[in-house]
Amino acid sequence: MTDLSTDILISGGGVAGLTAAAAFGSAGFSVSCVDPAPPVTDETADGADLRTTAFLQPSLKVLKDAGLWDRLAPHATELQVMRIVDAGGKTPAPRVSRAFKASDVSDLPFGWNLPNWLLRREMVARLKELPNVTFHPGTGTASVLTRDVEARVTLTDGTRVRAKLLIAADGRNSPVREAVGIGAKTIRYGQKALAFAVTHPEPHNNVSTEIHRSGGPFTLVPLPDRDGRPCSAIVWMERGPEVLRLAALPEAEFNAEMTARSGALFGPLRLETRRTVWPIISQIAHRMYAERTALIAEAAHVVPPIGAQGLNMSLADIRVLLELSRAAPADIGNDGMLELYHRRRHPEVSARVAGIDILNRTSMRGERIARDLRAAGIAGLYGLPPVRKALMRAGMGVRLSA
Predict the structure, then answer these.
(1) What is the CATH number of the domain that holds 30?
(2) What φ, ψ does residue 106 adopt, rounded to 5°?
(3) 297 — alpha (psi -120 to 50), left (phi > 0) or beta?
(4) Nearest C-alpha neighbor of 219 from the set 44, 386, 54
(5) Is residue 136 part of a domain?
(6) What totals of helices (H) and strands (E) does the chain contain, helices first?
(7) Residue 388: which pLDDT band, with cuts at 50, 70 and 90?
(8) 70 is a domain residue
(9) Which residues on neighbouring strands pair with residue 163, listed in sequence order?
């Protein structure tokens, strides 16, 4: 067996785990990152994650400090306007539409959108530049034993790792979270989401559009042009059986149904990628730490894909954990540091999970009175400028007191 010693072991090589590895490595810590599945870094390959991530303003500093932003910026699409549309009338046609402009509250866009498969490609490339970071794709975490001074982890290839801090970034069914005895509250909605990319004749003009009718939102997020045509990523949330029906439709029928669901706001939509199906839940861990162990990202919290909150919450976890580690390197992974991490993150995470749960339930409602109330709510909130601006700042992830 091989024995390794490192400052930080990150279990999980998804977008959050790779970001954490780059962030801690760029800060000078020795880092090992493991994941049982090699990252898929090609859009056309089997298993490619066709979802996209909109990095909101507070995430930009994390990406810059990790040495990632210079790699990502050339591929990013700015999100200058967030448009909320209610299409809850007798037909899917828009009946209420309100545009929230980033320029009303900031000199910067709301965020920057990138495909998840591309994020993995650029992040893996960044890790190769860091001599103090090792990435072990195809290797997972087999067992965890923690002590007061270190975590002792055995990997699936038999390697034994001693780490001052173990970071669980291994997903909603986190083996590390289970190994250290932390439970989680899970809410199931009976929903799934379709994720794919489309082209359309009308330009998106850097507008992200969230359309509400029933079953869940239909969201179009701007991407760079594809073969000279405007392109958007779509996340289409519906009841589970309906998503499975849509996923199986012949392409021409699917194009027609999604164009109708979009209210034809961008003209006829044309499918450009495979359709991938994702389960929708809310989940929050009872605690975000255990002895020598910190939970981040979906190991700590899961939310439906509304308002681009999920991965941005994960980067906030990384930011706080890194701040505490840099402030007292000698204390990295000790109980005091991890208790402080939990106190700084868990209340905010809990509030956001609860808020998105309410928004999702509201979006799912199909009864006429519920649809009418939703439409009135969108119009009413937009009509109050102080409330509108406060909601926009909160949606960006900016503290309202900032």
Answers:
(1) 3.50.50.60
(2) -160, 160
(3) left
(4) 54
(5) yes
(6) 11, 20
(7) very low
(8) no
(9) 6, 151
SS3 86: strand
- pLDDT tens figures, 157-199: 999 999 999 999 999 999 999 999 999 999 999 999 999 999 9
Whether this model's pTM surpasses 0.85: yes
- Beta carbons of 300 and 284 less than 8 angstroms apart: yes
- Provide the 3-class DSSP secondary structure of residue 347: helix
- Whether 206 is in a domain gets the answer no
What was the pLDDT predicted at 1?
53
Residues 191-228 pLDDT 10s = 999 999 999 999 999 999 989 887 888 999 999 999 99
Q: What is the DSSP letter of 108?
A: S
**Domain of residue 299, residue span:** 3-39+119-186+287-361
Q: How far is CA 204 from the centre of its chain?
A: 22
Torsions phi, psi for 135 (to 5 deg): -115, 130
Beta-strand pair 133-137/141-146? unpaired
Task: Report the chain's C-alpha Rg in angstroms.
Answer: 21
State how far the Cα of 18 lies from the Cα of 270, in Å rounded to an integer: 32
What is the dihedral angle through the alpha carbons of 309, 310, 313, 317, rounded to the nearest 10 degrees?
Answer: -170
Q: Answer whether residue 99 is part of any domain.
A: no
Is the sign of the CA dihedral 236, 238, 242, 244 positive or negative?
positive
